[in-house]
Amino acid sequence: MPSDTVLIIGGGPAGLTAARAVGELGGRALVVETRERLGGMPDEANYAALTPDFRPASEAVAEMVAAVEALPGVSVRTSTRVTAREGEAGDFRLTLASGEATEVVEAGAVIIATGFQHFDPGRETQMYGYYEYEDVLTLQDLEAQLKEHRVVVPSTGKAPETLCFIQCVGSRDRRIGNTWCSKVCCGIASKEAIEVKRLAPQCKVFIFYIDMRMYGFWEDQLYWKAQEEHHVQFIRGIVTEVIRRGEKLVVKGEDTTMGRPVEAPMDMVVLSVGMEPSRGTVEMSKVLGVPLESHGFIAAPGNPLDTVTTEVPGIFVAGAAAGPKDLEDTVGMAGLAAARAVALLRTAASTAQPVG
Amino acid sequence: MPSDTVLIIGGGPAGLTAARAVGELGGRALVVETRERLGGMPDEANYAALTPDFRPASEAVAEMVAAVEALPGVSVRTSTRVTAREGEAGDFRLTLASGEATEVVEAGAVIIATGFQHFDPGRETQMYGYYEYEDVLTLQDLEAQLKEHRVVVPSTGKAPETLCFIQCVGSRDRRIGNTWCSKVCCGIASKEAIEVKRLAPQCKVFIFYIDMRMYGFWEDQLYWKAQEEHHVQFIRGIVTEVIRRGEKLVVKGEDTTMGRPVEAPMDMVVLSVGMEPSRGTVEMSKVLGVPLESHGFIAAPGNPLDTVTTEVPGIFVAGAAAGPKDLEDTVGMAGLAAARAVALLRTAASTAQPVG
């Protein structure tokens, strides 16, 4: 008998949106999440506000979770991972492990929604000193401060007078093997820059960038707004080094528009770290037997007209498990993956041979 | 009685993907298209190959159309427009007009998939001479040549020795009111540049840009590939004027990386025109009573976590009707809109009061 359940691996924005769509379509969904609760990266990394609308992330996540919990067809297993797969589209059997306990569940289709992980700046090829200087942060370190409605220099506990973002840390960098653009970091840095200026209006805020990837409405919603309303200064340039000099960090590099070297003292430096395939993404590729594409994310070979179908029939992907995605990408993919998965289950049910 | 039909307005990639999803979910879809056939802008504007995968556009469109035509629940009306709406979510009545004939159809939900139109370079604020010089083309003019596997200078009929693209024509420009980035033009220009180099390897190809918006995998799939494998030259700069001098066009502006004026003779100039709300989008906003957002596209106020729900219950939006979108965005939104629309019809059917 084909199973009427869609197994959704991951309880972040992609998994929650897919589960809601499956549930609203009258299907059954089982969401499996390795963390002890739902919410995914916005919850795990303490995001303050969403890009581009500045909506509090915890409120948005709570709403997504509540929508899923209200649906009778959706159930959730937290602190649980998928450790094995047998069977085929319409009739998968998946082993779930929670602590010492294991259990086999049936599913007609699977959606991989295992998200991304932030690039570890310890792997950077420049000398930005993340593990050396406590006043060098990442985007998500600053998010955690912003969530508490404050911005402080870690070494002094005071508000910064100068702060800069360095873009493309762990992205567009062949030497570390991350040849992709992580898509969202320009938007997130601009959003955080605005939040910093709101909390510490006297602070001078700079963003060092190669290209500002402010596509679509982000152009005026974030990029122009940051410059015109909040006086954030965007400097096109390459930062090659961050050093400590007295009480300041000194950012060294080249302003490529002015064609001259830059040496700028900063109280805080924020590294705009990119997206990498999460451990869960790599693990699910192995466990489920789903091929990765050349960058190491889940392959969806029908791109761009089919963003969700993997190379294994019955297994779909949604969100940043398939590459760098913003929230709009993620919810769209989740909707399409849910539609395709529920459609597959309908077909499997209607063509199944009665048993016995 | 609630209607079990989703009316889909527009037969391009968004509408076709939504129709396929509704049909595969067991729902009924009626696709209404003003042109005499399906396919949308890729068909209307003679696109050669899709971005970023270089797949022939006509093949891809044919596949999307065939998928829809194979579904018994989906019907199509071409050469037809929607002229009036009455009723509410679950029970809309829409007037369709085809020539002189009109008809009222019932639908439980509506998906607006009316796409975009290319910016008309006659409205540009710079002096690029599109209507003055026949060797100044737009992206889609060049697509039409590429579809015929050729690249020729219109005034001579010969292959060009020098060709440049000018980015952001009609985008990121407050003076004409188009404050957004059109998102796809950097990718499409790079794709076309590669195609030009394949057809005319001796031609020197330049792209004048402000920021290359090559997000995600486009970075290495198109941007690096264009530079490294095809020797396309990207010049960061502002082009202020195109003039004719003898047999050449002369592109004048500033190379902002080198900090010096540019004056480059070209055989052909290609204007990377951006996306604007299509006439159909503006018309459907009025006919259906669906508000536009500040840029003039269909408003989806739940962005970024709900990209498809308009301000009118039961009416959804997918694709470039809601703003500049690439094909990946479009198919994702179409899937989510289809899932939401079919879910709404389920709810409407289950809560309907029996009549009489």
CATH architectural designation of the largest domain in chain A: 3-Layer(bba) Sandwich
Number of strands of chain A: 17
CATH class of the largest domain in chain A: Alpha Beta
Structural class call of chain A reads alpha/beta
Main attributes of the structure:
homodimer, 356 residues, alpha/beta, FAD/NAD(P)-binding domain, 5-stranded parallel beta sheet, 8 helices
Description of the structure:
The structure is a homodimer of 356-residue chains. By secondary structure, chain A is α/β, with parallel strands linked by helices. Chain A folds into two domains: 5-115 and 278-352, FAD/NAD(P)-binding domain; 119-274, FAD/NAD(P)-binding domain. Helix content of chain A is 28%, strand content 28%. The first copy, chain A, is elongated and about 70 Å long. At the A-B interface, helix 1, helix 3, helix 6 and helix 8 of A face helix 1, helix 3, helix 6 and helix 8 of B.
Secondary structure topology:
The structure is a homodimer of 356-residue chains.
Chain A lengths: L4 E5 L3 H12 L3 E5 L7 H5 L12 H13 L4 E4 L3 E8 L2 E8 L2 E7 L1 E4 L3 E3 L17 E3 H9 L14 E8 L15 H15 L4 E6 L8 H11 L4 E13 L2 E8 L4 E7 L1 E6 L1 E3 L1 H10 L26 E3 L9 H25 L5
Parallel strand pairs in A: 1-2, 1-7, 2-3, 7-17, 9-15, 10-11, 10-15, 11-12
Antiparallel strand pairs in A: 4-5, 5-6, 8-16, 12-13, 13-14
Helix pairs in contact in A: 1-3, 1-8, 4-5, 5-6
